[in-house]
Amino acid sequence: MPTDDVIRKRGCTIVSCCSLCHSVAETSDHLFFGCVFVKSLWLWFSLFQKNVQSPSILEALLAFDQN
After folding, report:
1. pTM of the full predicted structure?
2. Residue 11 and residue 1 in contact, taking contact as beta carbons nearer than 8 Å
3. How far is CA 63 from CA 4, 46, 52, 67, in A?
4. Cβ contacts of residue 67 below 8 Å, gap of 6+?
5. Mean pLDDT for each 10-residue chunk of the chain (67 residues)?
């Protein structure tokens, strides 16, 4: 999924804003590490102390639900 910064590099002019926190421009770095929403999601995952090795988020959530 291309982020806004990648779309701009391809020549499209767009106004960029993170679709999760609406605070800064959407970049891959922000979406995976800087977004407040994503940081809380990483914290939520870390609380389970599990090594998630599944091909989809749905399978990971289902694995947590079984405990």
Report:
1. 0.51
2. no
3. 32, 14, 9, 7
4. 48
5. 77 82 87 88 74 64 62
